[in-house]
Amino acid sequence: MSSFLQTERTTLKRLPARGVYDRALVYQILDEGFICHVGFAVEGRPYVIPTGYARANDKLYIHGSQASRMLRTLKSGIDVCVTVTLLDGLVLARSAFNHSMNYRSVVVFGEAVVVDEAEKLAALLAFSEHVIAGRWADVRQPTEQELKATTVLALPLEEVSAKVRSGPPIDDEDDYELSVWAGVIPLSLVAQSPVPDPRLKPAIATPRYAVDYKRLR
Amino acid sequence: MSSFLQTERTTLKRLPARGVYDRALVYQILDEGFICHVGFAVEGRPYVIPTGYARANDKLYIHGSQASRMLRTLKSGIDVCVTVTLLDGLVLARSAFNHSMNYRSVVVFGEAVVVDEAEKLAALLAFSEHVIAGRWADVRQPTEQELKATTVLALPLEEVSAKVRSGPPIDDEDDYELSVWAGVIPLSLVAQSPVPDPRLKPAIATPRYAVDYKRLR
Fold this sequence. Notes:
The structure is a homodimer.
Chain A: E1 19-20, H1 23-32, E2 35-42, E3 45-52, E4 54-56, E5 59-65, H2 69-74, E6 79-92, E7 100-111, E8 113-114, H3 117-131, H4 144-148, E9 150-156, E10 159-165, E11 183-191, E12 195-196, H5 208-211
Antiparallel strand pairs in A: 1-10, 2-3, 2-6, 4-5, 5-9, 6-7, 6-11, 7-10, 8-9
Protein backbone atom coordinates (compact mmCIF):
# COMPACT_ATOMS: atom_id res chain seq x y z
CA MET A 1 0.00 0.00 0.00
CA SER A 2 1.10 3.48 -0.81
CA SER A 3 0.98 6.82 0.96
CA PHE A 4 -1.34 9.72 0.25
CA LEU A 5 0.19 12.68 -1.51
CA GLN A 6 0.30 15.65 0.83
CA THR A 7 -1.55 18.73 -0.34
CA GLU A 8 -1.80 22.24 1.06
CA ARG A 9 -4.98 21.26 2.91
CA THR A 10 -3.69 17.98 4.34
CA THR A 11 -0.28 19.18 5.50
CA LEU A 12 -0.19 19.72 9.26
CA LYS A 13 1.29 23.09 10.12
CA ARG A 14 1.58 22.48 13.86
CA LEU A 15 2.95 19.26 15.38
CA PRO A 16 3.78 17.80 11.94
CA ALA A 17 5.09 14.66 13.69
CA ARG A 18 1.48 13.71 14.36
CA GLY A 19 0.63 13.73 10.65
CA VAL A 20 0.20 10.36 8.97
CA TYR A 21 -0.24 9.78 5.25
CA ASP A 22 0.07 6.00 5.20
CA ARG A 23 -2.86 4.44 3.39
CA ALA A 24 -2.90 1.25 5.48
CA LEU A 25 -3.14 3.20 8.75
CA VAL A 26 -5.78 5.56 7.36
CA TYR A 27 -7.89 2.57 6.28
CA GLN A 28 -7.49 0.94 9.70
CA ILE A 29 -8.84 4.06 11.41
CA LEU A 30 -11.73 4.34 8.95
CA ASP A 31 -12.59 0.66 9.38
CA GLU A 32 -12.72 0.96 13.17
CA GLY A 33 -14.99 4.03 13.36
CA PHE A 34 -18.77 4.01 13.15
CA ILE A 35 -19.59 7.69 12.72
CA CYS A 36 -18.09 10.33 10.47
CA HIS A 37 -18.70 14.07 10.63
CA VAL A 38 -19.57 15.50 7.24
CA GLY A 39 -18.73 19.16 6.72
CA PHE A 40 -19.93 21.37 3.90
CA ALA A 41 -20.73 25.01 3.35
CA VAL A 42 -23.94 26.49 1.99
CA GLU A 43 -23.69 30.17 1.09
CA GLY A 44 -20.44 30.27 3.02
CA ARG A 45 -21.99 28.92 6.22
CA PRO A 46 -20.63 25.64 7.58
CA TYR A 47 -22.63 22.56 8.56
CA VAL A 48 -21.24 19.50 10.35
CA ILE A 49 -23.54 16.47 10.34
CA PRO A 50 -22.78 13.09 11.97
CA THR A 51 -23.65 10.00 9.97
CA GLY A 52 -22.66 6.37 9.45
CA TYR A 53 -20.26 5.41 6.69
CA ALA A 54 -18.29 2.56 5.23
CA ARG A 55 -15.08 2.20 3.29
CA ALA A 56 -14.65 -0.17 0.36
CA ASN A 57 -11.38 -0.11 -1.55
CA ASP A 58 -10.42 3.52 -2.09
CA LYS A 59 -13.84 5.04 -1.53
CA LEU A 60 -15.74 6.22 1.50
CA TYR A 61 -19.51 5.79 1.25
CA ILE A 62 -22.24 7.67 3.04
CA HIS A 63 -25.93 7.06 2.55
CA GLY A 64 -29.35 8.15 3.61
CA SER A 65 -32.83 8.97 2.46
CA GLN A 66 -33.31 10.39 -0.98
CA ALA A 67 -35.05 13.25 0.85
CA SER A 68 -32.02 14.07 3.02
CA ARG A 69 -31.07 17.73 2.78
CA MET A 70 -27.41 16.88 3.35
CA LEU A 71 -27.25 14.30 0.58
CA ARG A 72 -29.12 16.53 -1.83
CA THR A 73 -26.69 19.34 -1.07
CA LEU A 74 -23.61 17.16 -1.41
CA LYS A 75 -24.59 15.52 -4.66
CA SER A 76 -24.62 18.89 -6.35
CA GLY A 77 -20.84 18.44 -6.39
CA ILE A 78 -19.71 20.86 -3.71
CA ASP A 79 -16.57 20.51 -1.62
CA VAL A 80 -16.91 18.23 1.36
CA CYS A 81 -14.70 17.45 4.33
CA VAL A 82 -15.34 14.18 6.17
CA THR A 83 -13.67 13.52 9.51
CA VAL A 84 -13.54 10.33 11.57
CA THR A 85 -12.17 10.49 15.13
CA LEU A 86 -11.39 7.67 17.54
CA LEU A 87 -10.70 8.61 21.15
CA ASP A 88 -8.15 6.28 22.74
CA GLY A 89 -7.40 7.79 26.12
CA LEU A 90 -7.04 10.66 28.54
CA VAL A 91 -3.45 11.80 29.00
CA LEU A 92 -2.81 13.08 32.53
CA ALA A 93 0.34 15.16 32.79
CA ARG A 94 1.92 16.73 35.87
CA SER A 95 0.96 20.24 34.75
CA ALA A 96 -2.49 21.38 33.69
CA PHE A 97 -0.95 22.72 30.49
CA ASN A 98 0.43 19.40 29.25
CA HIS A 99 -2.76 17.38 29.62
CA SER A 100 -3.86 15.86 26.34
CA MET A 101 -5.86 13.08 24.71
CA ASN A 102 -4.76 10.07 22.74
CA TYR A 103 -6.70 9.82 19.51
CA ARG A 104 -6.58 8.78 15.88
CA SER A 105 -8.37 10.89 13.31
CA VAL A 106 -8.74 10.96 9.54
CA VAL A 107 -9.73 13.95 7.42
CA VAL A 108 -10.87 13.46 3.83
CA PHE A 109 -11.35 16.32 1.36
CA GLY A 110 -13.10 15.97 -1.96
CA GLU A 111 -16.36 15.95 -3.85
CA ALA A 112 -18.93 13.22 -3.35
CA VAL A 113 -20.67 11.60 -6.30
CA VAL A 114 -23.89 9.59 -6.50
CA VAL A 115 -23.19 5.92 -7.20
CA ASP A 116 -25.07 3.87 -9.80
CA GLU A 117 -27.46 1.04 -8.94
CA ALA A 118 -24.86 -1.74 -9.08
CA GLU A 119 -22.43 0.13 -6.85
CA LYS A 120 -25.30 1.12 -4.53
CA LEU A 121 -26.03 -2.47 -3.55
CA ALA A 122 -22.32 -3.20 -3.04
CA ALA A 123 -22.04 -0.08 -0.87
CA LEU A 124 -25.04 -1.05 1.26
CA LEU A 125 -23.48 -4.48 1.79
CA ALA A 126 -20.25 -2.70 2.78
CA PHE A 127 -22.16 -0.56 5.33
CA SER A 128 -23.70 -3.63 6.86
CA GLU A 129 -20.42 -5.55 7.02
CA HIS A 130 -18.67 -2.45 8.36
CA VAL A 131 -21.04 -2.21 11.30
CA ILE A 132 -21.53 -5.90 12.01
CA ALA A 133 -19.95 -8.62 9.90
CA GLY A 134 -22.26 -11.49 9.04
CA ARG A 135 -25.49 -9.57 9.56
CA TRP A 136 -26.32 -9.00 5.89
CA ALA A 137 -26.79 -12.70 5.19
CA ASP A 138 -29.42 -12.99 7.97
CA VAL A 139 -31.78 -10.15 7.13
CA ARG A 140 -34.42 -9.35 4.56
CA GLN A 141 -32.68 -7.86 1.54
CA PRO A 142 -33.59 -4.41 0.22
CA THR A 143 -36.57 -4.19 -2.13
CA GLU A 144 -36.43 -2.19 -5.34
CA GLN A 145 -38.53 0.46 -3.58
CA GLU A 146 -36.12 0.68 -0.66
CA LEU A 147 -33.12 0.92 -2.98
CA LYS A 148 -34.83 3.71 -4.86
CA ALA A 149 -35.50 5.61 -1.63
CA THR A 150 -31.83 5.39 -0.65
CA THR A 151 -29.09 7.67 -1.94
CA VAL A 152 -25.49 6.49 -1.69
CA LEU A 153 -22.62 8.92 -2.23
CA ALA A 154 -19.00 7.95 -2.76
CA LEU A 155 -16.07 10.13 -1.78
CA PRO A 156 -12.77 9.09 -3.36
CA LEU A 157 -9.99 8.55 -0.81
CA GLU A 158 -7.45 10.75 -2.55
CA GLU A 159 -6.85 13.89 -0.50
CA VAL A 160 -6.55 12.34 2.93
CA SER A 161 -4.53 12.71 6.10
CA ALA A 162 -4.54 11.16 9.54
CA LYS A 163 -3.42 12.53 12.85
CA VAL A 164 -2.39 10.33 15.75
CA ARG A 165 -1.35 10.92 19.33
CA SER A 166 -0.44 7.95 21.48
CA GLY A 167 1.68 7.12 24.49
CA PRO A 168 2.39 8.76 27.85
CA PRO A 169 2.22 12.45 28.75
CA ILE A 170 5.11 14.70 27.73
CA ASP A 171 5.91 16.90 30.71
CA ASP A 172 8.30 19.80 31.06
CA GLU A 173 11.59 18.38 32.29
CA ASP A 174 11.36 20.16 35.67
CA ASP A 175 7.87 18.81 36.31
CA TYR A 176 9.01 15.17 36.40
CA GLU A 177 10.21 15.89 39.95
CA LEU A 178 6.70 16.83 41.15
CA SER A 179 4.77 14.43 43.35
CA VAL A 180 1.87 14.25 40.92
CA TRP A 181 0.52 11.04 39.42
CA ALA A 182 0.81 10.97 35.63
CA GLY A 183 -0.19 8.47 32.99
CA VAL A 184 -2.94 7.50 30.58
CA ILE A 185 -6.52 6.36 31.18
CA PRO A 186 -7.28 4.23 28.11
CA LEU A 187 -10.79 4.56 26.68
CA SER A 188 -12.57 2.29 24.27
CA LEU A 189 -16.01 1.81 22.83
CA VAL A 190 -17.34 -1.39 24.37
CA ALA A 191 -20.46 -3.40 23.53
CA GLN A 192 -22.80 -4.51 26.29
CA SER A 193 -25.14 -7.49 26.19
CA PRO A 194 -27.61 -7.25 23.33
CA VAL A 195 -31.13 -6.10 24.21
CA PRO A 196 -33.74 -8.11 22.27
CA ASP A 197 -36.53 -6.22 20.54
CA PRO A 198 -39.65 -6.38 22.76
CA ARG A 199 -41.45 -7.83 19.74
CA LEU A 200 -38.88 -10.58 19.10
CA LYS A 201 -40.44 -14.01 18.58
CA PRO A 202 -39.41 -16.16 21.57
CA ALA A 203 -37.81 -19.04 19.65
CA ILE A 204 -35.15 -16.88 17.96
CA ALA A 205 -31.68 -17.18 19.47
CA THR A 206 -29.32 -14.24 19.66
CA PRO A 207 -26.76 -14.63 16.86
CA ARG A 208 -23.14 -15.02 17.83
CA TYR A 209 -22.11 -11.73 16.16
CA ALA A 210 -24.49 -9.92 18.53
CA VAL A 211 -23.71 -11.85 21.73
CA ASP A 212 -20.03 -11.48 21.33
CA TYR A 213 -19.78 -8.16 19.57
CA LYS A 214 -16.27 -6.75 19.52
CA ARG A 215 -14.84 -3.94 17.48
CA LEU A 216 -11.61 -4.97 15.85
CA ARG A 217 -8.81 -2.61 16.63
CA MET B 1 -34.30 25.64 32.16
CA SER B 2 -35.71 26.85 28.90
CA SER B 3 -35.73 25.57 25.35
CA PHE B 4 -33.67 26.85 22.44
CA LEU B 5 -35.51 28.91 19.87
CA GLN B 6 -35.70 27.01 16.61
CA THR B 7 -34.15 28.74 13.63
CA GLU B 8 -34.08 27.89 9.95
CA ARG B 9 -30.73 26.13 10.45
CA THR B 10 -31.67 24.17 13.54
CA THR B 11 -35.08 22.94 12.41
CA LEU B 12 -34.97 19.30 11.32
CA LYS B 13 -36.64 18.83 7.98
CA ARG B 14 -36.65 15.02 8.04
CA LEU B 15 -37.67 12.97 11.09
CA PRO B 16 -38.63 16.11 13.07
CA ALA B 17 -39.60 13.84 15.99
CA ARG B 18 -35.89 13.29 16.60
CA GLY B 19 -35.26 17.01 17.07
CA VAL B 20 -34.71 18.22 20.62
CA TYR B 21 -34.46 21.84 21.71
CA ASP B 22 -34.50 21.32 25.47
CA ARG B 23 -31.59 23.11 27.10
CA ALA B 24 -31.17 20.57 29.92
CA LEU B 25 -30.89 17.65 27.51
CA VAL B 26 -28.51 19.54 25.22
CA TYR B 27 -26.26 20.33 28.20
CA GLN B 28 -26.34 16.71 29.33
CA ILE B 29 -25.10 15.56 25.90
CA LEU B 30 -22.40 18.23 25.81
CA ASP B 31 -21.25 17.34 29.33
CA GLU B 32 -20.91 13.65 28.46
CA GLY B 33 -18.86 14.07 25.27
CA PHE B 34 -15.11 14.56 25.06
CA ILE B 35 -14.58 15.57 21.46
CA CYS B 36 -16.41 18.06 19.28
CA HIS B 37 -16.06 18.47 15.53
CA VAL B 38 -15.51 22.07 14.55
CA GLY B 39 -16.66 23.05 11.06
CA PHE B 40 -15.79 26.24 9.22
CA ALA B 41 -15.28 27.36 5.66
CA VAL B 42 -12.27 29.13 4.20
CA GLU B 43 -12.83 30.54 0.72
CA GLY B 44 -15.98 28.41 0.53
CA ARG B 45 -14.13 25.17 1.30
CA PRO B 46 -15.17 23.27 4.42
CA TYR B 47 -12.90 21.99 7.19
CA VAL B 48 -13.94 19.68 10.04
CA ILE B 49 -11.45 19.44 12.90
CA PRO B 50 -11.84 17.30 16.04
CA THR B 51 -10.88 18.91 19.32
CA GLY B 52 -11.64 18.84 23.05
CA TYR B 53 -14.13 21.25 24.55
CA ALA B 54 -15.99 22.13 27.71
CA ARG B 55 -19.26 23.77 28.54
CA ALA B 56 -19.71 26.29 31.33
CA ASN B 57 -23.08 27.96 31.78
CA ASP B 58 -24.34 28.92 28.34
CA LYS B 59 -21.00 28.84 26.52
CA LEU B 60 -19.01 26.16 24.78
CA TYR B 61 -15.24 26.61 25.01
CA ILE B 62 -12.54 25.32 22.71
CA HIS B 63 -8.86 25.98 23.18
CA GLY B 64 -5.46 25.36 21.73
CA SER B 65 -2.14 26.86 20.88
CA GLN B 66 -1.98 30.48 19.94
CA ALA B 67 -0.34 29.21 16.75
CA SER B 68 -3.27 26.96 15.80
CA ARG B 69 -4.50 27.64 12.29
CA MET B 70 -8.03 26.69 13.25
CA LEU B 71 -8.20 29.05 16.22
CA ARG B 72 -6.65 31.90 14.26
CA THR B 73 -9.22 31.35 11.52
CA LEU B 74 -12.16 31.16 13.93
CA LYS B 75 -11.26 34.18 15.96
CA SER B 76 -11.57 36.36 12.86
CA GLY B 77 -15.30 36.05 13.56
CA ILE B 78 -16.46 33.67 10.85
CA ASP B 79 -19.43 31.31 11.10
CA VAL B 80 -18.72 28.08 12.88
CA CYS B 81 -20.68 24.87 13.37
CA VAL B 82 -19.69 22.65 16.27
CA THR B 83 -21.09 19.13 16.54
CA VAL B 84 -20.86 16.62 19.40
CA THR B 85 -22.01 13.05 18.82
CA LEU B 86 -22.42 10.20 21.30
CA LEU B 87 -22.94 6.73 19.87
CA ASP B 88 -25.23 4.63 22.10
CA GLY B 89 -25.88 1.47 20.17
CA LEU B 90 -26.27 -0.53 16.99
CA VAL B 91 -29.90 -1.10 16.03
CA LEU B 92 -30.42 -4.43 14.30
CA ALA B 93 -33.69 -4.63 12.40
CA ARG B 94 -35.18 -7.57 10.51
CA SER B 95 -34.56 -5.88 7.15
CA ALA B 96 -31.26 -4.43 5.95
CA PHE B 97 -33.11 -1.18 5.21
CA ASN B 98 -34.32 -0.54 8.76
CA HIS B 99 -30.97 -0.95 10.48
CA SER B 100 -29.96 2.15 12.39
CA MET B 101 -27.88 3.48 15.24
CA ASN B 102 -28.87 4.93 18.59
CA TYR B 103 -27.13 8.23 19.17
CA ARG B 104 -27.41 11.66 20.74
CA SER B 105 -25.93 14.62 18.92
CA VAL B 106 -25.82 18.37 19.38
CA VAL B 107 -25.18 20.97 16.68
CA VAL B 108 -24.24 24.53 17.61
CA PHE B 109 -24.12 27.41 15.13
CA GLY B 110 -22.56 30.75 15.84
CA GLU B 111 -19.44 32.85 15.94
CA ALA B 112 -16.64 32.19 18.39
CA VAL B 113 -14.99 34.99 20.32
CA VAL B 114 -11.65 35.13 22.13
CA VAL B 115 -12.12 35.24 25.90
CA ASP B 116 -10.25 37.66 28.18
CA GLU B 117 -7.62 36.57 30.71
CA ALA B 118 -10.02 36.13 33.64
CA GLU B 119 -12.45 34.01 31.63
CA LYS B 120 -9.51 32.09 30.12
CA LEU B 121 -8.45 30.66 33.46
CA ALA B 122 -12.06 29.78 34.35
CA ALA B 123 -12.44 28.07 30.97
CA LEU B 124 -9.24 26.03 31.43
CA LEU B 125 -10.50 24.91 34.82
CA ALA B 126 -13.79 23.96 33.14
CA PHE B 127 -11.89 21.88 30.52
CA SER B 128 -10.04 20.06 33.24
CA GLU B 129 -13.15 19.37 35.31
CA HIS B 130 -15.03 18.36 32.16
CA VAL B 131 -12.49 15.66 31.35
CA ILE B 132 -11.69 14.48 34.85
CA ALA B 133 -13.20 16.06 37.95
CA GLY B 134 -10.76 16.67 40.76
CA ARG B 135 -7.65 16.65 38.59
CA TRP B 136 -7.09 20.42 38.50
CA ALA B 137 -6.38 20.64 42.25
CA ASP B 138 -3.59 18.03 41.95
CA VAL B 139 -1.49 19.44 39.14
CA ARG B 140 0.92 22.28 38.54
CA GLN B 141 -1.13 25.34 37.64
CA PRO B 142 -0.54 27.22 34.38
CA THR B 143 2.24 29.77 34.31
CA GLU B 144 1.77 33.21 32.82
CA GLN B 145 3.79 32.02 29.82
CA GLU B 146 1.54 28.99 29.31
CA LEU B 147 -1.60 31.08 29.61
CA LYS B 148 -0.22 33.48 27.02
CA ALA B 149 0.50 30.62 24.64
CA THR B 150 -3.08 29.35 24.93
CA THR B 151 -6.05 30.74 23.04
CA VAL B 152 -9.52 30.06 24.37
CA LEU B 153 -12.57 30.72 22.25
CA ALA B 154 -16.16 30.84 23.50
CA LEU B 155 -19.17 29.98 21.39
CA PRO B 156 -22.48 31.15 22.86
CA LEU B 157 -25.04 28.34 23.20
CA GLU B 158 -27.85 30.19 21.45
CA GLU B 159 -28.53 28.58 18.08
CA VAL B 160 -28.51 24.94 19.12
CA SER B 161 -30.35 21.72 18.41
CA ALA B 162 -30.01 18.12 19.45
CA LYS B 163 -31.03 14.94 17.68
CA VAL B 164 -31.69 11.70 19.49
CA ARG B 165 -32.54 8.17 18.45
CA SER B 166 -33.10 5.56 21.14
CA GLY B 167 -34.97 2.32 21.62
CA PRO B 168 -35.58 -0.81 19.57
CA PRO B 169 -35.63 -1.15 15.78
CA ILE B 170 -38.74 -0.05 13.90
CA ASP B 171 -39.50 -2.73 11.34
CA ASP B 172 -42.05 -2.84 8.57
CA GLU B 173 -45.14 -4.51 10.01
CA ASP B 174 -44.83 -7.57 7.74
CA ASP B 175 -41.23 -8.12 8.75
CA TYR B 176 -42.07 -8.83 12.41
CA GLU B 177 -43.10 -12.32 11.25
CA LEU B 178 -39.62 -13.11 9.91
CA SER B 179 -37.39 -15.47 11.85
CA VAL B 180 -34.63 -12.89 12.20
CA TRP B 181 -33.14 -11.77 15.51
CA ALA B 182 -33.67 -8.06 16.15
CA GLY B 183 -32.65 -5.74 18.94
CA VAL B 184 -30.00 -3.31 20.07
CA ILE B 185 -26.32 -3.80 20.88
CA PRO B 186 -25.60 -1.01 23.39
CA LEU B 187 -22.22 0.70 23.06
CA SER B 188 -20.43 2.89 25.54
CA LEU B 189 -17.07 4.50 26.01
CA VAL B 190 -15.41 2.61 28.86
CA ALA B 191 -12.21 3.37 30.77
CA GLN B 192 -9.64 0.65 31.31
CA SER B 193 -7.08 0.50 34.11
CA PRO B 194 -4.82 3.54 34.14
CA VAL B 195 -1.34 3.10 32.66
CA PRO B 196 1.26 4.92 34.76
CA ASP B 197 3.79 7.11 32.97
CA PRO B 198 7.05 5.12 32.61
CA ARG B 199 8.78 8.02 34.38
CA LEU B 200 6.38 8.08 37.33
CA LYS B 201 8.16 8.23 40.71
CA PRO B 202 7.48 4.89 42.46
CA ALA B 203 5.96 6.25 45.69
CA ILE B 204 3.06 8.03 43.96
CA ALA B 205 -0.28 6.23 44.27
CA THR B 206 -2.84 6.30 41.48
CA PRO B 207 -5.55 8.82 42.43
CA ARG B 208 -9.07 7.52 42.91
CA TYR B 209 -10.42 9.58 39.97
CA ALA B 210 -8.04 7.67 37.68
CA VAL B 211 -8.48 4.17 39.15
CA ASP B 212 -12.21 4.37 39.08
CA TYR B 213 -12.81 6.56 36.09
CA LYS B 214 -16.40 6.56 34.93
CA ARG B 215 -18.16 8.88 32.52
CA LEU B 216 -21.41 10.10 33.97
CA ARG B 217 -24.30 9.47 31.71
